[in-house]
Structure formats: C-alpha cells, structure tokens
C-alpha cells in the first residue's frame, strides 16, 4: 500500500445467510484488493441453500492467496449474532464488515486506509471512514449511484446514512461489542450509534467504492423499493438515508 510503512492486518467479516449465489463475487473482490495482509472470516448463519458448500470451495480455491476461515452457526440467529461470533476471533488492527451479496471496488481498501491514516494523523478521535456506492441489480447491472452524507454525530441518531463496508479501527469495534442481537433491521445504524456515542468520529469519502446489490431479499428492504422505482422510470441518484431503516428490535414475549 502506497504511503504506509508497515501494512497491518485488516480483518474482513462476512456474515452470510442464503447468499450462496452472490458470495463468490464478494470474495473475488477481496482477491483483487491491492492490500495485504487480510484476514477473512465468513460466518454462515445456518443457511438453507448451498452456501456452506460454496464457501468451502472458495476457501480451497483461494488457498495460498487469501486467508479465509468459515464459522458455521448451528441455528439461524440473525446478522448481528453472526457479527458477534466473528468479533470473538478476529485479530486485525482494522475491521471491515462486508455483506455477502455486495462487493468492493478494486481500490476500496487502499483508498479507505489512506484517508483514515491521514485523518488520524490530525485527529485521533477519527475511528472510521465510509463512502458512496454503486447500486446494482441482482444480476450485476448498474442502476444508480447511492450517496451517503458528510459525518454528523447527531444525524446518525435519526437517520441511517453510514454504509456497512466502512473501514473501522478494530479498537472502536471492540469497545462496543458485542452488539445487540435483538436488532434485526437497521443493524448498521445501531452499530454506528454505539461507536459514535463512545467518542469516535468518521470521515466521508464522496466516491462510490463498493457495489451494493439490489434484490428482493435485502434485509433493509431497499432492494425491492429501488427495483420498483427503476421499473417505474424513476432515475437519478439515491440518498441512502432515505431508504435504510433505523434500528428496530425483535419483539419478545
């Protein structure tokens, strides 16, 4: 990585549930990153498709190229539970949470680390960087650009505007982990609220550095909504905070 003296370990957490058709492209995008070392931990949340078989094949095919490990959850417990399980074993100085139906642009990690390291040289409270994205269809066709927003510690309380594959200091993640497993929607917002409330700030990179796949099974519901809008002729960039739900918890009792 240009500008870095001694590259340090970056842990990539990939929670997966029934996204076997997509996860190959997700892992392939990590193989194209111009950065090492990477530690990739895939947590399969009791998928009922052929995800586990595909993941094991990926581990074999990338042997010697990527450090990939698989954790198999025995019962479906939700995305947050999968992330918590991975947090027990990851050891990197940096962390990146990547959904198994999305993938990174080739310069994602190098670009994010350069911005994060530069920002932290001026302010040690900066704990993460985040970015815009390309919205793509289930089959990979470009739909529109998805935009985040400049960092605002107050805004995150009411609007979910920070995407998942932000690059974060592991220290910031560990300080607030484990995350609340009762949160089933708006998991991103809940995580960022915790991190920001703990004193960390973020830096926004207004560039599309990952591809966010739109399909009917997106946990947030954004995929079905965007696809319907496109089919009805609505074009133009999407402001992500207008589509992502705020945190909601699973009802008990």
Number of DSSP-assigned strands = 12
Give average pLDDT, whole number.
94
The string of secondary-structure elements, in order, is: EHEHEHEEHEEEHEHEHEE
Q: Provide a count of the helices.
A: 7
Describe this structure as you would to a colleague.
The chain has 253 residues and is α/β, with parallel strands linked by helices. The chain has one domain (10-246): Spore Coat Polysaccharide Biosynthesis Protein SpsA, Chain A (Alpha-Beta Complex), CATH 3.90.550. The protein contains seven helices and twelve strands. Strand 6 and strand 7 (142-147) form a beta hairpin. The model has no long low-confidence stretch (mean pLDDT 94).
Concise summary:
With 253 residues, this protein is of the alpha/beta class. It contains 7 helices and 12 strands.
Describe the structure using short key phrases.
253 residues, alpha/beta, Spore Coat Polysaccharide Biosynthesis Protein SpsA, Chain A, ten-stranded mixed β-sheet, 26% strand, globular
Blueprint (SSEs and pairs):
Layout: E1 10-16, H1 20-31, E2 38-44, H2 51-61, E3 67-72, H3 79-87, E4 94-97, E5 103-104, H4 108-122, E6 126-136, E7 142-147, E8 167-169, H5 170-176, E9 183-185, H6 187-197, E10 201-213, H7 222-231, E11 238-239, E12 248-249
Parallel strand pairs: 1-2, 1-4, 2-3, 6-10, 7-11
Antiparallel strand pairs: 4-8, 5-10, 6-7, 6-8, 9-12
């Amino acid at each position: 990585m240009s500008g870095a003296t001694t590259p340090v370990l970056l842990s990539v957490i990939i929670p997966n549930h029934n996204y076997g058709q997509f996860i190959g492209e997700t892992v392939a995008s990590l193989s194209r990153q111009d950065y090492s070392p990477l530690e990739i931990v895939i947590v399969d949340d009791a998928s009922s498709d052929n995800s586990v078989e595909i993941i094991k094949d990926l581990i074999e095919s990338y042997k010697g190229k990527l450090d990939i490990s698989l954790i198999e959850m025995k019962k479906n417990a939700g995305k947050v539970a999968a992330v918590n399980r991975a947090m027990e074993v990851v050891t990197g100085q940096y962390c990146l949470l990547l959904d198994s139906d999305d993938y990174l642009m080739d310069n994602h990690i190098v670009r994010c680390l350069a911005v994060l390291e530069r920002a932290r040289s001026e302010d040690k409270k900066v704990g993460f960087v985040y970015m815009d994205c390309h919205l793509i269809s289930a089959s990979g066709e470009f739909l529109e650009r998805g935009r985040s927003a400049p960092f605002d510690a107050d805004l995150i309380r009411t609007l979910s505007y920070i995407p998942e594959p932000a690059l974060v200091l592991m220290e910031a993640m560990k300080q607030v982990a484990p995350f609340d497993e009762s949160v089933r929607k708006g998991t991103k917002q809940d995580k960022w609220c915790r991190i920001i409330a703990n004193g960390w700030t973020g830096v926004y990179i207004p560039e599309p550095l990952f591809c966010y796949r739109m399909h009917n099974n997106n946990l947030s519901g954004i995929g079905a909504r965007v696809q319907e809008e496109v089919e009805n002729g609505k074009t133009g960039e999407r402001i992500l905070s207008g589509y992502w739900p705020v945190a909601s918890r699973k009802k008990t009792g």
